[in-house]
């Protein structure tokens, strides 16, 4: 794969641009293949083999992919052109060594066809008929040709599929965010206000003369399983688990994550392996989970919607909140009645 930061743009944006709520149909695989270069990419963005099952099917646009973060981090965030995110479509990593990160797919508009809203929900048979027959589906690679342990995907190729972002002080980008509905006026205001408020609170806490209690003992190996309930530890308990870079064994705990402190959440999955974006290599994970509903919140307009990774050291076991407990009981009772 190429590694240059930018490549010549090959596509022009269709008018009008796709917006959140629009329905689209993913083109047949054979048509998408014609848009790709020798690196299986369009404008540097690869079409991944895990995306093939969605060809010929209809989905709704979640948001435009105007900005993305990359690894290693770069500020301002980089610009991605002529791309959208479709609701609920994430990579399962099945053809990338079993990577469990669960990234949202990025779809070039050239791979999609707008459909009327009244045709948005075809039945299963119709959707199946639209899909490519098995012998028409191309074989797509997921590793570099001369190195079968070096994976490439949309995440690893974002540096060359994007362009440098605009400085944060330029107002035009924020007007565009509002126009394409990346943000509402209130969410855009909160995106700027939240970090400022958080730092003010921390400063006021530092002026508090009262002695703080010693940090609670942290258990780094909880052995969490999907469905377990946990509570995110408070800031004073998390800070001792971080090194001078604000990381725990290489996994950053960004300041934006402190907004989750004290919340009770349910474990979605335990991670065993992920692909490191900067290297394309599989990396074994330990004592790390994802939590249901815990994803990044379009920070700086980023469209990736990445699941947040949590070290078990930042969590403690918890009973489910009363509402969740009663809901689980109802579901269990209904399941038992169906069995009877």
Structure, explained:
It contains seven helices and 20 strands. With about 350 residues, it is α+β, with helices and mostly antiparallel strands. It folds into three domains: about 25-160, no CATH class; about 170-205, no CATH class; about 230-320, no CATH class. Strands 8-7-4-1-9 form a five-stranded antiparallel sheet, with no helix packed on it. A five-stranded antiparallel sheet has the order 19-18-15-12-20, with no helix packed on it. It starts with about 20 loop residues before the first strand and ends with a helix. The relative contact order is 0.15.
Structural class: alpha+beta
Task: Provide the domain count.
Answer: 3
Largest sheet, if any?
5 strands, antiparallel
Q: If you average the pLDDT, what whole number results?
A: 82
Termini separation: 57 Å
Q: Into which percentage range does the β-strand content fall?
A: 15-25%
Proportion of residues in helical segments: 10-25%
Along the chain, the helix and strand elements come as EHEEEEEEEEHEEHHHEHEEEEEEEEH
Runs in which pLDDT lies below 50 for 5 or more consecutive residues are 2-8, 123-129, 334-340
Q: Please state how the strands of the largest beta sheet are arranged side by side.
A: 8-7-4-1-9
Q: Calculate Rg over CA atoms.
A: 22 Å
- Total strands: the figure is 20
What is the tally of helical segments? Answer: 7
Shape field = globular
């Amino acid at each position: 794969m190429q590694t240059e930061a930018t490549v010549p743009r090959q596509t022009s944006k269709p008018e009008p641009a796709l917006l959140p709520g629009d329905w689209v149909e993913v083109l047949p695989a054979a048509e998408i293949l014609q848009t790709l270069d020798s690196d299986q990419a369009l404008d540097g963005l690869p079409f991944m083999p895990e995306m093939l099952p969605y060809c010929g099917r209809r989905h709704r646009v979640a948001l435009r992919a105007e900005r993305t973060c990359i690894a290693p981090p770069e500020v301002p965030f980089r610009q991605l052109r002529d791309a959208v995110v479709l609701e609920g479509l994430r990579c399962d990593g099945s053809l990338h060594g079993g990577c469990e990160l669960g990234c949202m797919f990025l779809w070039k508009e050239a791979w999609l066809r707008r459909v009327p809203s009244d045709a948005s929900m075809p039945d299963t048979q119709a959707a199946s008929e639209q899909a490519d027959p098995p012998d028409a589906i191309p074989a797509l690679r997921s590793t570099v040709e001369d190195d079968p342990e070096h994976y490439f995907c949309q995440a690893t190729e974002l540096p060359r599929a994007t362009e440098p972002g605009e400085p944060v002080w330029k107002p035009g980008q924020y007007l565009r965010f509002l126009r394409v509905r990346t943000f509402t006026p209130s969410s855009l205001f909160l995106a700027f206000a939240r970090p400022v408020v958080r730092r003010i609170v921390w400063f006021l806490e530092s002026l508090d003369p009262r002695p703080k209690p010693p940090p609670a003992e942290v258990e780094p190996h909880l052995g969490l399983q999907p469905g377990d309930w946990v509570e995110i530890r408070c800031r004073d308990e998390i800070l001792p688990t971080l090194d001078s870079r604000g990381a725990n064994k290489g996994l950053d705990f960004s300041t934006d994550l402190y907004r989750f402190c004290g919340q009770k959440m349910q474990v979605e999955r335990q991670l065993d392996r992920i692909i490191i974006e900067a290297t394309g290599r599989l990396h074994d994970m330990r004592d790390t989970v994802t939590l249901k509903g815990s994803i990044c919140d379009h920070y700086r307009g980023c469209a990736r919607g990445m699941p947040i990774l949590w070290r078990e050291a930042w969590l403690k076991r918890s009973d489910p909140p009363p509402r969740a407990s009663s809901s689980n009981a109802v579901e269990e009772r209904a399941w038992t009645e169906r069995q009877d």
